Amino acid sequence: MIPLRDDNPRRTVPVVNVILIIVNVLMFLWELSLGRNIERALFQVAFIPRHFWAPGHFAAEMTSIFVSMFLHGGLLHLGGNMLYLWIFGDNIEDRLGHFRYLIFYLACGFIATMSHALANPSSSVPSIGASGAIAGVLGAYLILFPHARVLTVIPIVVFITVREIPAIIVLGLWFVLQLFTGVGSVGAVDDTAGGVAYFAHIGGFVAGMLLVFVFGGRRPRPPARREVAYRDFMN
Asked: How far apart are CA 112 and CA 133, in angstroms?
């Protein structure tokens, strides 16, 4: 299933969400500018679980965790991640506020990467992509807006249909798919394991579901600014 948009209105401009998308796109353009040197560069700057657990690499790999959140392995990888971030991230930023949303996003990405490192400690494959952090956004959206309607493309064999589906179904099915695929990949423990970071998706999603409470996502929305201004004027 491919989400196209949701029917969930926002009350503020998603400044941080837009900046995150722009930074991801700029980093992808930087990757393209490297040409044949891209593979060597990714091994130098991206997060690699095997390096993280090696003695003496901790500090460097901590930095690489956050760099890797803004790197992608191709146009489809980037486009899919940014589509999900654009559709679901604005409402989470609207509820948490700009600064708290940024910290929330980075925290989910960090926990997602740690989940991947724990599940694939011997992997020498660079772990790149915003999907772990975005999975946290999806987890938070499931908690805050389970009944929001999501316009979704649904392929059925050779046919394609478009339907509005509750977010709890769209995001719930997404998580179940990650969970089953991740559990099914357990046992592939050679040094090339972890090419697709399913446990980053799982860890990020669960982190988002929990951290949204820590960051105050369940508190009632404050009144819109213009409504406050109108009441003040009337008083």
From this structure: 7
The mean pLDDT value of the chain amounts to 87
**9 phi and psi, to 5 degrees?**
-70, 150
Q: Does the pLDDT value for residue 221 go beyond 80?
A: no
Q: Which are the contacts of 60, defined by CB distance < 8 A and separation ≥ 6?
A: 51
- Domain locations in the chain as residue ranges: 2-234
Nearest by Cα to 143 from 196, 219, 81 = 219
Residue with the two structure tokens 């404050």: 222
- Alpha-carbon Rg for the chain, nearest whole angstrom, is 19
CATH label, 2-234, candidates 3.40.50.410, 1.20.1540.10, 3.40.50.150, 1.10.1040.10: 1.20.1540.10
The model carries a pTM of: 0.87
For 173-205, write each residue's pLDDT tens digit: 999 999 888 877 665 544 544 456 889 999 999
In degrees and rounded to multiples of 5, residue 191 shows phi and psi of -75, -5
> CB–CB of 92/11 below 8 Å?
no
